[in-house]
Amino acid sequence: MDFSNLTNIDIGILTAFGGHGSPFLDTLAVLLTSGWTWIPMYLVMFFVVIKNNETMAQILLVVGSALACVLFSGIFSDLLVKPFTMRLRPLNDPMMVGIANIVEGVGSNTYSFFSSHAANTFSICIFFSLLFRNVWCMAALVTWSLVNGWTRIYLSMHYPSDVAAGLVWGAMVGALVYYVQRRIYMNITPHLHFISSQYTRTGYALKDITMIICVMTLTVLLAVFLALLMRA
User: Fold this and answer.
1) Closest by alpha carbon to 69, among 171, 186, 204?
2) Which pLDDT tens digit goes with each residue over 120-136?
3) Can you tell me the distance from the alpha carbon of 218 to that of 66, in angstroms, rounded to the nearest whole number?
4) pTM of the full structure
5) Pairing with 161, which of 8, 38, 122, 211 sits 20 to 30 Å away (CA)?
6) How many CB atoms lie within 10 A of CB 230?
7) Degrees, nearest 5: CA angle 69-70-74
């Protein structure tokens, strides 16, 4: 598949906003792009789901839906799109020599278009934004996903268009999974949660949503601190 015209646009964006060899940003991007970094956030979200649902069926439905978001967004990219397009990652593309930011220990021999990392994070972002229905949590999740997308560009793992396409696909998957989840939820739940000023429209306690945002913020601050410490 010919990506020459698109690559020219991507190169212009990468030159302006991609990696510039900053030791601090190199380390920070590696930390933020790792799924291990965000385990505390995932655990807190799981805790919030357990606490704010009344039956095991409701809990399993949310957990299964979150897994479906990751599976459908990632599998479609990794097993179907990438083998068809066979677009090289920027760090492996001869055209990107001298432009791509090469960070020690970062690399992959798989193809680039489109970013399953961006698709996965944005599908989770959209699903839980619709599930929780809280504007501050939605803003935090969107920021989280976009930051993950930035790390893929900064580390030359993906072109900007790879990330953009991943975000679009992830949004579609997240919205579709939520729609299916909501239909099933209404069938297995005799009544909705009581909604008050202490709960979101879908029955999640605002104090629990705040806990998710706090953990996300602390995770970023810890990553910044570690990046500064490791490069001191």
Assistant:
1) 171
2) 999 999 999 999 999 99
3) 23
4) 0.89
5) 38
6) 14
7) 115
